[in-house]
Amino acid sequence: MLLFSLLVAGSFSLGALAANEVSPAALNAVRFLIAACVVGSVAAATTGIPRAAFDAPWRYLVLGGLFSFYFVAMFEGLKTAPPVSAAAVFTLTPLMAAGFAYLLLRQILTLRMVLALAIGAVGALWVIFRADWQAFRVFEIGRGEKVFFVGCIAHAIYAPMVPRLNRGEAPVVFTFGTLVAGAVLLFLYGWSDIAGTNWAELPRIVWIAILYLSVPASAVTFVLVQYAALRLPAAKVMAYTYLVPSWVICWEILLGRPVPQPLVLIGVVLTAAALLMLLKHE
Description:
The protein is mainly α. The protein has helices spanning 2-18, 24-45, 58-77, 83-90, 93-105, 111-128, 133-137, 143-165, 171-189, 191-196, 204-229, 234-239, 244-254, 265-279.
C-alpha cells in the first residue's frame, strides 16, 4: 500500500495536465484496455487464468463499474478543481471506507484506529494546504470537487467489496476480470467520445498520462490494492491514501514545481505516525 500511494499520487499530477485535453470516458476506456492486456498477460504467464475464475461474472462488473466510475469522476472533477482541492476531497475516502466496511463486512474500528485515521486526516490536510491556514479558510467547494466526491464514494465502497466478492481467485486474476469489465463498461458508456476523439492529434502529455495511468497507476495499483484488501481491514487499506498528498509534493518537485516550506513536513510526520499506529494488528 505504500507503493500504491506513491503510484496513485502520480495520477493526480499527470492527470491534471491531461484532464482538459481529452474526454474522461475516452481516456479511461483506453487506459483500462491497456491495463487489462498487461495484467492478463502477467496472469497467464504466472498463476494462469482458470475457467472457474469467471464464475459469477457479475462480480467483475460491480468492481469494474465502481473503479471506472471513480476514475471518470476524478478526471471530470480535475477539469475545474485544482489538484490541491481534489486531494483534500480524496482524504475523506478512508473514513467512508470504514463506514462501508462495517455495513458490508461488519468490520469494526477500534479506538486506536479511529485516532490514527483522525491524525492521518489532519496530517494530509496540513500537507495539502501547505501549512497555510488562510488557504484552508478560503477553500471552496465547486462543481469539480462535488463530482470527485461522488467518485470517492465509489472508491470507498470498492475496498470492502473486494473481499466480499472474491472467491479465492489470485489478486492478479481478480484484477484482470475487474479491468476487462471496467473497459467494457467504459467503451459502452463513452463510445461517442472515443469515436469523436482525434487520437493522432492529441498532445504528447496525454499519451504520457495514458501510459502511466494504464500500467503503474492501473495495472500495478489494482493488483496491489486487491492483494492488500484481502489481508487488511478496508479502513487500513484506504488509510494509506493519506500519504498521497505527501507523494504529490514529491511528484510536483520532479515536474519542476516549487519546493514547499519546511512547516509542511509536520503534516508528513503526522501521516507517517498515523500509519505506524495502523500497522499494529488488532
